[in-house]
Amino acid sequence: MTIFLILLIVALLGVSVWQLSKIYKFTLGGDSDTSEIANDKDNQTQGKLMLAFVIFLYGLMAYCFISYNSYFLPETASEHGKGYDMLMKISVVLIMFVQICTQFLLHFFAYKYRGKKDQKALFFADSHTLELIWTGIPIITLAGLIIYGLYTWVDIMHIDEEEDAMVVELYAYQFAWRARYAGADNELGKANVRFIEGVNTLGVDESDNYGQDDIITNELHLPVNKKVIFKLRSQDVLHSAYMPFFRAQMNVVPGMITEFAYTPIKTTEEMRQTDFMLEKVETINNVRRENSQKLIAKGEEALEPYEFDYYLLCNKICGASHYNMQMKIVVESEEDFNNWLAEQKTFRQVVSK
Amino acid sequence: MSADHGHHKDTFITKYIFSEDHHMISKQYLITGLLMGIIGIGMSLLFRMQLAWPEQSFQVFEVLLGKWAPEGVMDPNVYLALVTIHGTIMVFFVLTAGLSGTFSNLLIPLQIGARDMASGFMNMVSYWLFFLSSIIMVFSLFIEAGPAAAGWTIYPPLSALPQAMPGSGLGMTLWLVAMAIFIASSLLGSLNYVVTVINLRTKGMSMTRLPLTIWAFFVTAVIGVISFPVLLSAALLLIMDRSFGTSFYLSDIFIQGEVLHNQGGSPVLFEHLFWFLGHPEVYIVLLPALGITSEIIATNARKPIFGYRAMVGSIIAIAFLSTIVWGHHMFVSGMNPFLGSVFTFTTLLIAIPSAVKSFNYITTLWKGNLQFNPGMLFSIGLVSTFITGGLTGIILGDSTLDINVHDTYFVVAHFHLVMGISALYGLFAGVYHWFPKMYGKMMNKNLGYVHFWVTAVGAYGVFFPMHFVGMAGLPRRYYTYTNFPYFDDLADTQVLITVFALITAAAQLVFLYNFIYSIFYGKKAEQNPWKSNTLEWTTPVEHIHGNWPAELPTVQRWAYDYSKTKENGEYVIEGQDYTPQTTPVQEGEEELTH
């Protein structure tokens, strides 16, 4: 029924537009121009609208930057993220500067040179100087950005295996994540999907000694200020381990092991206490309270208040529940981390049961 | 070819259906493209509604999606299918075939002074293959398990294994078959365009006198010929992995309680092959739109396009660079980080010719006498969205910055502005501008103005806020974001975006109405309504097979002598501010060397 009504409304709208255009034609009277080619009056109106449009565009940009300011991610929680954030800031400022200037010129010229009957256009086909200027400026600016970007890139992507770093495997399957810690020997046991059987859900090779002390968990705990090297392994399809608060992302590819490394620098607790996060969580909880009231009115359960936690989410389409493939990340002091790890079962304990 | 070319008797079938006439084929492409566009845009409205009001019941879902929306709530698999088919249809069927197919076919013979395409038969086959592939793609929407749903990039193993998702069964097979036929169609078309431009230019039409539209179509066809076959091979290997047990893309997989025998393949190989087409594809979509814009802006500014040679140079530079930047889609794919550095370098280089083009457009407006016909508005709109969308490419093309915005809504916002909306504007600009040439009628300008302004406001309303949603780290292709309370405060913005999307889509109905109404009841067009220099406006208003009734025109000058004056300050042809390409050099006129 609703669909029928919608169709009816659309049809009626169509008819009314048609009628309006007819009425419009009549009101123009006999002497008006019906050639469907822009005349001076059109040029006047459209030219002014161009100017109005650039004002709208500035307004929209200003609105977005002000009212969506809290959408930007909080200060980075990883060491390399500082370089990342700086590069991002520089790029955004630069882009917005160019955006504001060029959009102004485009729409202002459109307004200023709107057609008039006796206006003559300037025959201006070429200028080497101008071309040189606007080829040269982008070249110089981009050279700067490329060099800065690549410098940061190499810094982030270079993984030194010799360093005193903790090795953790992130294991992805439809639709969840597991973490595998290397244990006391800091060496992951061999693994392959062909070893998957019963409780050995990650396919760790039981005959490999390095694997005996491996620890498999549902949550990712990390000690603060210690470098972690992630080894990523997928069981079935492509996934992507996306950890936005750490400015980290790497695809998880079946058939190969990919890597990413970073050093967390803020514990979960520290992040919760930042001004940004306090405000953000309050906003979110206001939204949740409103939604809860609606739910209660419908006789459903209220939403729980939100408390911030780092998370890892899947960012490569992987099937129906892709949207809910996540894992909690906890960054804590080394002491807390060691206590937590000690409580977890090793691989040997799991399989020998 | 003689002047009496095509004076054989046409039956209804040879004239309207299996036509070998470029003019008719162009209209066939346009209508098919528009129909596919209605489906593609309609789908985007459905999944935008799901994003704005997650998991709510809508009767429209129940009616349109049937059992895939039990009680009106959209199923996650259907969400992914809608996203996938929306992308496929819009990129390939609307913005490649619908845009390039329409205007290359219409304008190449008309603007270079040829009677038809080099091979009319191949041209006809090209269209009918496209039609067949559209039919198969649409047909795949109606099968039991639903259409392909692995994203328009169909990365294996998800697309290779029917166990991984329902859409990877028959739906994916049909997707691959449709695309293989589409590629064949596109190759036949492209070869034809290239051959026609090289061989059939009329007397005096040197390459340096070609209108920029033709340059754009020509270069687009060349990159199509280079890159589409690679997608075909990627698809063939995927078909083999799916059906014949090979392991090109598959290795070490355990799915649904079972280990697969495949070993040694890599999905990364597929990504390389896919993006070797996938990235040039962006320019296959965009370059024709830029060519159309160049022509329309110059005509309506009553000024020569600024920096013709730089414009040609940047088209060629963009085309060349576009074939060596595909890796920027794969910065976090697990490929060697050193490759990432190389691709960052080549990718950011593309910003240079793009900046040159933008500045040249702006300079063309400067001190012009701008005639705001609807085509002109859409062309200016294109420059605006091309700049906005292009600039965010500087963030995404930088391997470092890509790490944290990769596959988020930031990417969605970026490419919709720079290639989606820009190319659509190019399509609309072309339709408004060449409608008189296609149908001999004029479109209603006031409806055109309404269409433009609502679309312009709506498109920015949809995609500008979307960047910020992406900056928050919200991944694309998520059925709902409600499982992450951190995204709860995005809810209002999601609604805002969807409302803008619905309004913008409604504005397209105005266009459709105007288009159909004008075909039948539009005001009859004059021969050269926009006072343009190019050759297509020297043909009769009512199209005839062979284009020119008598001899082919001879070209005497480039296409952009608008408002050119002689030494005495008078226009080259007294009383008119344009000098058609067929006008010989006049006394007292300085000749430009281009």
Walk me through the structure.
The complex is a heterodimer of chains A (353) and B (594). By secondary structure, chain A is an alpha+beta fold. In chain A, 46% of the residues lie in helices and 16% in strands. Chain A has a domain at 166-270 and 306-352: Cupredoxins -  blue copper proteins (Immunoglobulin-like, Sandwich). Chain A has helices at 2-27, 40-67, 81-112, 128-157, 268-273, 275-297, 334-343, 347-352, and strands at residues 166-173, 176-181, 215-217, 220-223, 228-234, 239-243, 248-252, 258-262, 310-314, 326-332. Chain A has a five-stranded mixed sheet, with no helix packed on it. In chain A, strands 4-10-9-6-7 form a five-stranded mixed sheet, with helices on one face. In chain A, helix 2 runs antiparallel to helix 3. The termini of chain A are far apart. By secondary structure, chain B is mostly helical. Chain B has helices spanning 12-17, 22-52, 59-65, 76-112, 120-139, 170-199, 212-243, 267-301, 308-322, 337-349, 351-365, 374-396, 399-405, 409-439, 445-471, 491-521, and strands spanning 254-255, 258-259. Chain B has a two-stranded antiparallel sheet. Chain B is globular and about 85 Å long. The model of chain B is unreliable at 1-6 (pLDDT under 50). Classes of the chains: A alpha+beta (353), B mainly alpha (594). At the A-B interface, helix 1, helix 2, helix 3, helix 4 and strand 7 of A face helix 3, helix 4, strand 1, helix 8 and helix 9 of B.
